[in-house]
Amino acid sequence: LAIVLNITIFGIFSVHVVSFVFAILCLAVVIKMGSFEKKMNPTSIILGGIIIGAFFSAGLSFLKYLADEGVGAIVFWLLGSFTGKSWMEVSILSVIWVFGFIFFCYYAEDLNILALGEKNAISLGINPSKIRRILLVVSSILSAVA
């Protein structure tokens, strides 16, 4: 969206800021879909994520259809190209990814406990809803930065 609409308010980080905003928007919708009951159901979160992902993928395909000269940049960006990026941008994003890796290593034990089930996690002193929300937000941030 930032490439097609030529959004440059945030300078070299415009694409990442717009990605972050839409990642958080997507996350909010997925969490809302997954928590119709008081607790967050993992199956509903996964299915909601698939639905929202398909919706945004269709929107992205529509934007690629509308964009004439910007299509090449969009396709290369989606394939992970670093064309047109400076080493400064790559180094900043690498630092963010390293912090994300350290963050997930810190929560690795909680993730293993969550894999045992919600009742077991609660009995071991873990708040599953809180941990899921924290990890979903950090995952969205890392996805937006990618």
Automatic annotation (TrEMBL):
Membership in a protein family: Belongs to the binding-protein-dependent transport system permease family. FecCD subfamily.
Q: How does it sit in the membrane?
A: Multi-pass membrane protein
GO cellular component: a single term: plasma membrane
Q: Which residues cross the membrane?
A: 6-31, 43-67, 87-108
Q: What is this protein called?
A: Iron ABC transporter permease
Can the keyword Iron-sulfur be found in this entry's annotation?
Answer: no
MF annotations from Gene Ontology: transmembrane transporter activity
- Predominantly, its location class is membrane
GO BP, sorted A to Z: siderophore-iron import into cell
Mitochondrion among keywords: no
Q: Which UniProt keywords apply?
A: Cell membrane, Membrane, Transmembrane, Transmembrane helix, Transport
Tell me where on the tree of life, at the top rank, the source sits: Eukaryota
Q: Where in the cell is it found?
A: Cell membrane
Q: Which organism is it from?
A: Hirondellea gigas
Pfam families recorded: FecCD (PF01032)
Q: Which SUPFAM superfamilies match?
A: ABC transporter involved in vitamin B12 uptake, BtuC
